[in-house]
Amino acid sequence: MPEQLETGGAFVFLNYAGEVVIERGFVKPEDKPSGEVSSTGFGDTVEPAKKEKPLHSEKLCRRLTAHRTAAVQVELAAQPGVALAVLMHHMIPTIFREKYGYVFNGTMLEAQFTSSHEKLLREADDMADSPAWQQIDAGRAKWSSMLPTRGSELLPWLLQQSDDITSNLFAFCVAATLDSVSGIDRAHTVNALCDVLNLDMTKYWKATQASYLNHVSKDRISEVVTVAVSADAAAPLASNKNQEVASMAERLLSDTGWLPEVLVNREVPGDYSFASAETDEVDSDQDYPAEPNEQAGCEREEIRGEED
């Protein structure tokens, strides 16, 4: 319809195979008439779906997943064979692109070998007190004391070391590039590694005022205590102030091993690729990442009429 074409637009972008893609039929949220509903095309209308409020805020998700990252780093650094496999899993699709096409399997390793050390401290101000971080710092101090002072001496030094030293140093370095910090609780590729390593997050994280309870509502605290302990234990919390509730809940949860959902979630996203013409077609049921239209905050609607 003419009035829809006036506000409608399109996105032109390159997909992961470097091909030009045009997505039509988008309007900016501010251009949508207030109270507008979408049509199904059969004479009825459908109210727009309300966005569900996430269980944890983006900041808290990033805080919790920073702790997950540190825990995986500790476990990975102790298993050089797994560290080698992880790095090769990241490299092989790039080296053998004619076989795998343009593969995107999520973000887990920094391909430029960027250390996530300082990032984890920024994301969680209680990180330095965690058991995982204390092990990471001890490992850094040990390896730092062994490494040569000058960069020019590093290669000769490495060539003189035993397989045991180089393999363990390699595992520590691969682990140090790991980054699974996320502002959303959703499937993440690091969860496959969590399963391989049999990661037990209760060894590295517990619900305290600083780590969790000061960052959620009183109702959420009551819900957690009800699930982890009992409804009777949670009942007295309702009549206390927020700070007192957090303190009481910390004592109640101390020996329960309770973990927030984002640290329990072990869902892994499916791999997908934009393969070359010689390879199989892309699976239409795969879960693809947000394209630029979603990132720009625009909504798509059907526009009837002549296309551009």
Helix content: 40-55%
Averaging pLDDT over every residue, what do you get? 78
Main structural class: mainly alpha
Q: How does the major sheet shape up?
A: 3 strands, antiparallel
Strand content: 5-15%
- The outline comes out as flat
Keywords:
single chain; 308 residues; mainly alpha; 3-stranded antiparallel sheet; two-stranded antiparallel ribbon; 14 helices; 7 strands; 8% strand; flat; disordered C terminus
Write structural notes for this entry.
This protein has 308 residues and is mainly alpha-helical. The chain has 3 domains: 2-53 and 288-300, no CATH class; 56-205, no CATH class; 206-258, no CATH class. It has helices at residues 2-7, 58-77, 80-95, 97-100, 117-123, 131-146, 154-160, 163-176, 190-196, 218-228, 231-234, 242-253, 261-264, 292-295, and strands spanning 9-14, 20-27, 38-39, 45-46, 102-104, 272-274, 299-300. A hairpin with a 5-residue loop joins β3 and β4 (45-46). α2 packs across α6.
